Task: inverse folding
């Protein structure tokens, strides 16, 4: 389905019945990234899986920034009248989730972010150099965004009141110290660093990520 938000068309898929969950994919991906997880979650939840701007079937833009993506999702939730959804954001989707919790503190019921960073320095050195090289070769606006954004401060993390789980692979492209710092500065948040996992390896292990998400959802 397609919805017009902030002067751009955002494509999304909805499935299942139950409490609402919004799934946000990462940079260069689309809703298909969560295909297996979405199918599993749809057994017990209403799952919304949008394509972010300039990704998948959504509208194209000349410039990308995380704040625009964040306002797209806030408006998406408002227009579709999704009442207090749980949000799971992977990588760039996790960055958008953090921004939502900062700028719309009462919008979400719970937040799960995985492989997210609050600034480009959070990316390990070698992956960051690869991103720089790829940008020089392609001039991709998606890569440009990763090299210059986000710019979320410790003070902003301190304001988050949404119950939050901060998740990452132990061998993530995001530095472990950076992930730990994010969790330590979100009041009351939980942290999971998954042994033996990289940036996205655990997403394909449907039962594993499903268990992590649902265990956190069911906690009081």
Result:
């Amino acid at each position: 389905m397609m919805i017009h938000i902030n002067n751009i068309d955002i494509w999304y898929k909805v499935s299942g019945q139950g409490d609402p969950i919004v799934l946000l994919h990462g940079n260069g991906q689309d809703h298909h990234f969560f295909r297996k997880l979405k199918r599993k979650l749809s057994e017990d939840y209403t799952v919304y899986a949008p394509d972010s701007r300039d990704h998948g079937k959504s509208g194209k833009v000349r410039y990308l920034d995380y704040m625009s993506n964040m306002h797209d999702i806030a408006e998406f939730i408002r227009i579709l009248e999704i009442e207090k959804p749980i949000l799971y954001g992977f990588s760039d989707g996790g960055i958008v989730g953090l921004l939502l919790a900062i700028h719309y503190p009462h919008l979400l019921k719970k937040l799960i972010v995985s492989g997210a960073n609050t600034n480009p320095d959070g990316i390990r050195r070698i992956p960051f150099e690869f991103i720089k090289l790829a940008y020089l070769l392609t001039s991709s606006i998606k890569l440009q965004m990763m090299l210059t954004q986000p710019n979320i401060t410790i003070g902003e993390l301190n304001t988050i009141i949404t119950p939050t789980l901060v998740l990452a692979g132990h061998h993530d492209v995001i530095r472990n110290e950076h992930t730990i710092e994010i969790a330590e500065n979100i009041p009351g948040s939980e942290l999971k660093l998954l042994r033996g996992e990289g940036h996205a390896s655990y997403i394909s292990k449907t039962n594993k990520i499903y268990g992590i998400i649902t265990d956190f959802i069911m906690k009081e």
Notes: The two ends are 33 Å apart (CA to CA).
